[in-house]
Amino acid sequence: MKKLIHTMLKAGPLFLIITFMISTGCQQQPDYSKELKPLFEKYYDVWRTGNLDDLNAIMDPNFTRHSDPGTSAEGLVNLKKLISEFRAIYPDFKLESNEEIYSENKFAGRWTMTFPSASAGREISIWGVNIIHFKNGKIVEEWDGFDNQSFMEQLGYIMMPPAAEKE
Amino acid sequence: MKNFKAFVLLYMAVLFASCTNPDSQVQENIKMYTNVWDEILNKGNIDMIDTHFASNYVSKTVTSTVNGKTEAKAYYGAFLTGFSDIEFVVEEIFGKEDRLVKRWIFNGTHSGEFSGIPPTGKKITVKGVSVARIVDGKIAEELDYMDDLGFLQQLGVIPTLGK
């Protein structure tokens, strides 16, 4: 035993090296939110505030947004157009982020949007899920899906099945 | 000296064992999750729900909430009876800790009654995004968005302004 302790003392630096190598090799999944969350938050803030110039620093000029035909956009110029048009139609909406998942150069989240509606006589609320891709510190692509059916139903539309047409 | 070598080996083994790599857990979850949905939708193996869904499974979609395996089998089973030639493609999947995210496309032919709509024979394409939580290797929670309005419109449903 004495001999073992003696050898260990002599081999102290070796132990330190082994411990260091294993614990660095034992990587934690890095925290990508540090880098990506500020970009994501700035992007959502532009939807909220309409300060379109703030997009210049965070979006790739070739940014593409894939969503339903009414809210898709190709290129930063068209995104700005989309946001300003959307804000003109729905000036009083509230946008909230409910869940955020950050991975390497990727984000996924769930959001809720609420708006007062005069025609419905109450507040309308929809939710959606989106994925955002980042490249070189900029937002390059987004897929966004939201609850269009429920949105239209809350606005007073009813879904007429094809069978009902024949009757 | 022999003792010492054994000690070093043991020491390294303990260090390695205590080092659970979170990324490999995510990779394992991705493999399981992708396979389960491939089996259910592409191969019609609905019983995968029994073996790979947690008993307190909850799924929230834009139009409904599904609670537990029995409801899940009824909900997803409706897609299997409503559509044939199903082609479910995962375009992208990634994760963080116990969460997974996937972006998918569902192609199929509307050859059976679906959601009260008699078969139209139409070929439909729907895109969606799902966020899932995997607990102890089982699918515990899913949040499923799909373009439901576009989907219904492809089946001939027309949104009409009611009173």
Note down, in words, how this protein is organized.
The complex is a heterodimer of chains A (167) and B (163). Chain A has a single domain (33-158), classed as Nuclear Transport Factor 2, Chain: A (Roll), CATH 3.10.450.50. Chain A is built from six helices and seven strands. Chain A has helices at residues 2-10, 12-25, 33-49, 76-89, 148-154, 162-166, and strands spanning 59-66, 73-74, 94-103, 106-117, 122-135, 138-146, 157-160. Chain A has a six-stranded mixed β-sheet. In chain A, a hairpin with a 6-residue loop joins strand 1 (59-66) and strand 2 (73-74). Chain A is elongated. Chain B starts with a helix and ends with a strand. Chain B is built from five helices and seven strands; from the N terminus they run αααββαββββαβ. In chain B, strand 5 (123-135) and strand 6 form a beta hairpin. Chain B has a single domain, classed as Roll (Nuclear Transport Factor 2, Chain: A). With 163 residues, chain B is of the alpha+beta class. Chain B has helices at 2-17, 22-42, 48-52, 68-82, 148-154, and strands spanning 53-61, 65-67, 83-96, 99-110, 123-135, 138-146, 158-161. Chain B is elongated and about 85 Å long. Chains A and B meet through helix 1, helix 2, strand 3, strand 4 and strand 5 of A and helix 1, helix 2, strand 3, strand 4 and strand 5 of B. Strand 7 (157-160) of chain A pairs antiparallel with strand 7 of chain B.
